[in-house]
Amino acid sequence: MENGEIESTDDETTPPPPTFTGRQYRPVVSHDQVSIPMSPIEPVPPPGIQMKDEGSSSGGAGSGGTKSESKLEFFGKALVDLLGVRDMTGEPAPSSPRDGEDVSITLGRQKQSGVKLGTMMGVFVPCLQNILGIIYYIRFSWIVGMAGIGGSLLLVAFCGLCTFLTSISLSAIATNGAMKGGGPYYLIGRALGPEVGVSIGLCFFLGNAVAGSMYVLGAVETFLDAVPGAGIFKESATPFNGTTEIVHTPNIHDLQVYGIVVTILLCFIVFGGVKMINRVAPAFLVPVILSLFCIFIGMLASPKNDSARKDGITGLKFATFRDNWGSEYQSTNNAGIPEENGAIFWNFNALVGLFFPAVTGIMAGSNRSASLKDTQRAIPIGTLAATLTTSFLYVISVLLFGALATREQLLKNRLLTATVAWPAPVVIYVGIILSTLGAALQCLTGAPRLLAAIANDDILPVLKYFKVTEGSEPHLATLFTAFICMACVVIGNLDLITPTITMFFLLCYAGVNLSCFLLDLLDAPSWRPRWKFHHWSLSLLGATLCIVIMFLISWSFTVISLALASLIYYYVSIKGKAGDWGDGFKSAYFQLALRSLRSLGANQVHPKNWYPIPLIFCRPWGKLPENVPCHPKLADFANCMKKKGRGMSIFVSVIDGDYHELAEDAKTACRQLATYIEYKRCEGVAEIVVAPNMSEGFRGLIQTMGLGNLKPNIVVMRYPEIWRRENLIQIPSTFVGIINDCIAANKAVVIIKGLDEWPGEYQKQYGTIDLYWIVRDGGLMLLLSQLLLTKESFESCKIQVFCIAEEDVDAEELKADVKKFLYDLRMQAEVIIITMKLWEAHSEGPGAPSPDDSAKAFVGAQRRVAAYLSEMREDARREGRAELMADGKRVVVNEQQVDKFLYTTMKLNSTILKYSRMAAVVLVSLPPPPLNHPPYFYMEYMDLLVENVPRLLIVRGYRRDVVTLFT
C-alpha cells in the first residue's frame, strides 16, 4: 500500500489448500485421520543407485506401485533423506571412516579418485620428518655443550611442553567437525574469525617457507662437511676460542649455490603431487631411522681408550656426565665457533630460539588435512605420537651426549653424531642429508597448500592467483614458496634463520591454543570435540608459554612478528571480504551480551546510566523510492540522538497482510533495511513484522521489542504532514493510536516535522535550538538539545529555553530557578519566561504574526472541526444512535473544550513563529490526545501547532528522569 493507507478486506471465499510440492506442507483439515498408516519398511537407495526389487512384477504399473510403497514417508517427505545432509551446509558431507575404510557420500556423483592418506603416512611420518631435522643432527650436541645437561633437559622440557600442549589443543579443534585444507589456518580462522585466521595463516606460511630454507642449508652444510672437495669455493678457517686449533666450515657461497640447486630439485618432486611425495617419503624416512639407530649404537659402544680421550670422546662415563651437568655460556662467531670476543653471546634465551625449530613440525600433518582420509582420527593420534616420540628421543640424547664427550668436543665438533656413529660416519651423513631433505620436502608440500587454502576462501582478493580447484595441485603457490625459500637460502646462515622461523611458528601455536581456549571456555552447543583429553586451562597455559618463549628469544623479533601479523590483520579488515564462519569471537560477544544483560537486571536505569535507545518507525507517511526502505533523514536523526555514535537504534517497519503469505517478503525487507542502515553508518538493528494493519503491528512491536533494560525507550517517527493533502482519512486514528500505545507502554515519543529539511551530517547549521518547555518531561527535551550540540552540524548553535508560566507566577524568580537548574545540569542555555499576559500581548503587539500565519489557520481548523462534527451527528441520527461514534469508537464532544484546545495550540504556534522563526530546530512538548475526542480533532490540534514551523521536534517524556544533578 502507498502513502500509509490502511485497508481492511474480508475475504468471503476460502482459497483452496496449497498443493504439496517440494518442502511445502498441506494444512491439516478436520476429516484427516489421526494416525498415519505406514507401509512396511524397506530400504530406500539414495539417488543414482539401483536396487533390485524382488517383489515387483514385469508390468509397469506393478513396478511403479512397488517403488512408491517402499518409501517410508512423513507428510510426503522421506524420513531418511541423504540430501538433507547436504542441505545443512550446502556442501557434500565429509566422511569419518573406520580403519582402512574410505567412505564418501556420492549421491549419484562419481567418487573422486584423489589419493587419501592415513594416520601413519599422512600425519605421523610428516611430523616426524619435520621434527627430526637438522637441529638434532648438527646442533644438538653443541647445545648440550653450551647449556650443560641440566640446562638442556630444562630446554627440552620447556619447548616440548609448549608443543605438547599445542598438540592437545590442535587435537581438540581438529576433532570438532569436518576439516578442509589449510590445517592450522582453517582451525584458527574458523575459531577466531577470518582476520585473525588470515594474518596468522600467512605468517605460518612464511614460517614454513623459511623453514624449508633452513633444512636445505642443513643438508648442504652436512654434504660439504662430508665431502670437502665438493666445495666450489675455499673453506672458511676459524681458530677455536683463541687457540692454534683451526676449525674448518663450508664457504657461504657454496651453501648458496648448492642450496638453490637442491631447492629446485625438491620443487620437481612437489610438482609430482601427493602420489609422488608418498612414494618418495619412505626413501627419506627409512635412512633417518637407520641413522638414529646407528647413533645410539655408536654412543653405547664408543671407545674408551687413550686415543679416543685425546679427541675428547670419553665414552659413557659418569665423570664426564658430572663435568657437563652445568652450563658454560660464552661468545661465538657467526659459525658457532667459541671466541672470546665473538659476535654472539649465547644464553638460555638464545638457545631457546636456536632449539625450538627442533620441536616444531607438529602442524605438518594438519597442513595436509585435505589429503587425509579421516582428519578426526589421524591428526590427534599422529601428531601426539610424533610429539611424544621425539621428546623422549631428545631427553635420552641429552643424557647420552652429556656423558659421551668433553665440553670442548661438544662445542667444537658440529658433527659429533657422525663421529661416534656405528659402523661409519657415512651412515650419519646420508641420514642427515635425507632427514633434512625430507623435512624440506614436507615444508615445500605443506606451505603451498596452506597458501592455496587461504586463497580459496576468497578473503583477500590479492591472493586470487593462488586459487586452485578441488583435487588440483597448487603449482603457482609452490613456485612462490620456492622463491621465498631460495631467497632465504641466499642468506646462507642457519643460526640467523632459525629465530625468524621460531617466531612465526610460535605465533601460529599461540593462535591454535587461544582458539581452543576460547571455544572451550565458551562451551557453545556446537563445541563437541571427539578428543576429550583437553581443558581450557591447558590451552591457556600453552598460549602463555608461546608468548613467553617469543619474548625470551628476542623481544625485537617478537615485536616485529606481532607488528607484521597486525598489519596483515588491518589489511584484511580493510580490503578483505567478509567471511561468516561463526567464529568464537561471535560466541564471546553473545556470552558477554547475555552476562551484561543479566547484570543490568530489570530495574529502572539510573539517570546517570541512561542511554537513548530509539525505536525508529520507518514506515513513512509518504512515498519513497522502491529501493529505499527507510527515510534517509530518519537514519541521520537517529545518529543525532547518540553521543559520539555510541548507542543502539532499532529500525522497525510493518508490512500489511497475512504472515504466512508474506514471511519471506518480510525477511527480504529486513535484510534490505539492515543493509541500508549499515550504508548510512548508523549503529542499529532492523526488524520487520507482518500484521493485518499498521496499528496492530506497532502495538505488537512496542510490547515485545527488546530484552530486559535493553528495550527501546524512545519512539521516533515522522509527522504525517501529507494526510490532509492526500485525503488519507485513516491516518488520524492510526497516528493517535500509536501515541496512546506509547503512553500506555511508558515510552517517550519524538515526532519530527519537516523531516525532508533535516540537515545532513556535514550541513552546518547556525542560529539557535529553541526549547518550549511546557510540561515536565524528565529532562528529555533538555538532553536531546545537548545531544544535538555534540554533532558537527549543530555545534555552532546556542540553546534557548522558553518556559510558559501561569499568569500569577513571578517571572524573574522562575527564571532564576530554571537557570540554577540548568547550571546544575551542566547545560548552557538562555532562559526566556513567557507568562500568560505576555502570551496575550504577543498576538497583538509589534512583530506579532499576521492573520495569515496563525489566525487564518485557526479559523480554517474551526470550520473543518465543525463540519466533521456535523457529519458525526448526521451519521448518529441516520443510524438512530444517541451517542456519537468516530472510527468505530464512542466519543464525547465538548465544543467549548475543543475551541479551547484549538485556541491554545494557535497561541503556542504564534509564539513559536514570533521567537523561533529563524531557529535551526524547535523542540516543543507533545500534548497527549484528549480522552474521548475523535482522532480527527487531535490531528487538527497538531496541524495548528506545527503550522508554518519548518523544522520541529515534538517531544513527550515518560514517567522518570533521564538527567540528574548529581555526579
UniProtKB/TrEMBL annotation:
<feature type="transmembrane region" description="Helical">
    <location>
        <begin position="344"/>
        <end position="366"/>
    </location>
</feature>
<keyword id="KW-0325">Glycoprotein</keyword>
<feature type="domain" description="SLC12A transporter C-terminal">
    <location>
        <begin position="632"/>
        <end position="753"/>
    </location>
</feature>
<keyword id="KW-0472">Membrane</keyword>
<feature type="transmembrane region" description="Helical">
    <location>
        <begin position="281"/>
        <end position="301"/>
    </location>
</feature>
<feature type="domain" description="Amino acid permease/ SLC12A">
    <location>
        <begin position="122"/>
        <end position="590"/>
    </location>
</feature>
<feature type="transmembrane region" description="Helical">
    <location>
        <begin position="378"/>
        <end position="406"/>
    </location>
</feature>
<feature type="transmembrane region" description="Helical">
    <location>
        <begin position="144"/>
        <end position="175"/>
    </location>
</feature>
<feature type="transmembrane region" description="Helical">
    <location>
        <begin position="476"/>
        <end position="494"/>
    </location>
</feature>
<protein>
    <submittedName>
        <fullName>Cation-chloride cotransporter 1</fullName>
    </submittedName>
</protein>
<comment type="similarity">
    <text>Belongs to the SLC12A transporter family.</text>
</comment>
<dbReference type="Pfam" id="PF03522">
    <property type="entry name" value="SLC12"/>
</dbReference>
<keyword id="KW-0630">Potassium</keyword>
<feature type="transmembrane region" description="Helical">
    <location>
        <begin position="196"/>
        <end position="217"/>
    </location>
</feature>
<feature type="compositionally biased region" description="Acidic residues">
    <location>
        <begin position="1"/>
        <end position="13"/>
    </location>
</feature>
<feature type="transmembrane region" description="Helical">
    <location>
        <begin position="426"/>
        <end position="455"/>
    </location>
</feature>
<keyword id="KW-0813">Transport</keyword>
<keyword id="KW-1133">Transmembrane helix</keyword>
<keyword id="KW-0812">Transmembrane</keyword>
<keyword id="KW-0769">Symport</keyword>
<feature type="transmembrane region" description="Helical">
    <location>
        <begin position="117"/>
        <end position="138"/>
    </location>
</feature>
<dbReference type="InterPro" id="IPR018491">
    <property type="entry name" value="SLC12_C"/>
</dbReference>
<feature type="transmembrane region" description="Helical">
    <location>
        <begin position="500"/>
        <end position="519"/>
    </location>
</feature>
<feature type="region of interest" description="Disordered">
    <location>
        <begin position="1"/>
        <end position="69"/>
    </location>
</feature>
<feature type="domain" description="SLC12A transporter C-terminal">
    <location>
        <begin position="764"/>
        <end position="966"/>
    </location>
</feature>
<dbReference type="InterPro" id="IPR004841">
    <property type="entry name" value="AA-permease/SLC12A_dom"/>
</dbReference>
<feature type="transmembrane region" description="Helical">
    <location>
        <begin position="255"/>
        <end position="274"/>
    </location>
</feature>
<keyword id="KW-0406">Ion transport</keyword>
<dbReference type="InterPro" id="IPR004842">
    <property type="entry name" value="SLC12A_fam"/>
</dbReference>
<feature type="transmembrane region" description="Helical">
    <location>
        <begin position="540"/>
        <end position="572"/>
    </location>
</feature>
<dbReference type="Pfam" id="PF00324">
    <property type="entry name" value="AA_permease"/>
</dbReference>
<dbReference type="GO" id="GO:0016020">
    <property type="term" value="C:membrane"/>
</dbReference>
<keyword id="KW-0633">Potassium transport</keyword>
<dbReference type="GO" id="GO:0015379">
    <property type="term" value="F:potassium:chloride symporter activity"/>
</dbReference>
